[in-house]
Amino acid sequence: MSMNAENQMEETKSNKSRSIILYISLFIVCLGSCAGHYLLYGIPETVAIRMTGLVVTGLLVTVFSFNAGSAYESLFGNNADNPGRFYIAFMAVSVLGILQPAMPASAWPMVSCFVLLTVLSNIPAGITASCVCLIMSAASGGAAGLSYVFVYIFAGITAAVLISHIDESFRTTLPILITLIILFLGLAVVTFTTNSVFSVEMLIYPTVNITITLILMLFILKLYSAKVIFKQKDDYLELNDPECMLLTKLKNISPADYKKTVHVVYFCDRVSSALGLNTDVVKCAGLYHRIGVIGGAYNWENTRIVCEESNIPQTVVDILKELEDPNTPMRRTETAVLYMCECMVSSVQYLFGKNKDIKLDYAELTEAIFKQRFEAGLFKDNDISIGQYEKMKKVFMEEKLYYDFLR
Q1: What gap in Å lies between CA 39 and CA 37, rounded to an integer?
Q2: Which of 180, 336, 363, 402 is deepest in the core (most CB within 10 A)?
Q3: Interacting residues of 257 by C-beta distance below 8 A, sequence separation 6+
Q4: If you average pLDDT over residues 4-22, what whole number do you get?
Q5: Is the pLDDT at 1 greater than 50, yes or no?
């Protein structure tokens, strides 16, 4: 067995051990929270047993949702590489939730929990985890708490869905406003229907709730954007600089590979933008797809070693593996984009290399290349949609002026 294989096995065992520790800690903390609710609020034993059973079920679904999101790459940001961030936040919310039933149910800041746990995972895991915490508070709050459960679920789902669709500019005003409107309407309906006589005092707790929820949502999203979103952008900004140290090394070793990489990245940027993909990720994969040359030859093993030594993001490494490793199916749309960008550049450079003055029909050439790759089964295991496939083809057909730079 090679040293690389041994290292991979050790890393896999280490990751499994960390995951098991997180799962055990999560169950211990949440069951401890159940015990805390039982002891502090004098919950009847039958209710406590029911609560504990639902919490355990919810924890299993949460763990399943998070792992499924990691397997199918539907977790937000780089959460797949940092599962501890989600589980530690979940445990903290569970512990702090012990204090929640001491407040009137109309003042529970539950919606902010939905936001926090969703941005650290994905929609299913975030909603399920938040509902686990809500179950404990509702059981301890009695009939009054149960009246508000669906208000927080509806407002929380609204927040989770809207926050998850924030674009790269991270504009949060509209999602927050819509969430607060849903929360206000729900609190108003329950508050007015559970009080026979109207009084100004009945508005105090819902107002406090909305205010605290607003402050917490702003704080959570600000912290998340600073520590995750924009930090990730800064990391890619440095990696995507064609003059960075690693690419300069490639330029010195193989000027032809470096020059080709620059052209490929141009098309990666154009196509990924048209398809609504993460342009930073696709451009980074395009820049480093020939980096194996530094290791002596262009192959996956050399690329993997160079990427590990240079701390290239795992998402980019996974794309490069699908591109270069013959034993790994090409499933990602980003990989298909990179493959076709490299293919178009290579084809045009080859034709210009044979005859520098040749006049090419780029639309016809694009159609022929795509048809050949489609019939070869390139896209059969890929996630790319028909609409994305046609848009990608259209971008290559319209880029008539740039091809002259490949002469």
Answers
A1: 6
A2: 336
A3: 250, 290, 293, 298
A4: 68
A5: no
Residues 86-130 have pLDDT tens digits of: 999 999 999 999 999 988 889 999 999 999 999 999 999 999 999
CA–CA dist 236, 77 (Å, integer): 13
The count of C-alpha atoms lying within 13 angstroms of the C-alpha of 28, restricted to the half-sphere facing its C-beta, is 7
DSSP string, 363-405: HHHHHHHHHHHHHTTTTTT----HHHHHHHHHHHHH-TTGGGG
Q: In this structure, are residues 316 and 371 in contact, taking their beta carbons and an 8 Å threshold?
A: no
- 400 φ, ψ to 5°? -75, -35
Q: Which pTM value belongs to this model?
A: 0.68
Q: How far apart are CA 139 and CA 335, in angstroms?
A: 48
Q: Which two tokens stand for residue 102?
A: 């001491």
Mind listing the domains of the chain with CATH numbers?
Answer: 18-233 (no CATH), 240-406 (1.10.3210)
Cβ atoms 345, 260 nearer than 8 A: yes
- The confidence band for 4, taking pLDDT boundaries of 50, 70 and 90, is very low
Token readout for 206 is: 């819902």
Per DSSP, 247 falls in state H
Tell me the average pLDDT across 349-360.
Answer: 86
Tokens of 323: 């591109």
Q: Average pLDDT of 337-355?
A: 91
CA 112, CA 214: separation in Å to the nearest integer? 8
pLDDT for 136 beyond 90: yes
Cα(76)–Cα(88) distance, integer angstroms: 17
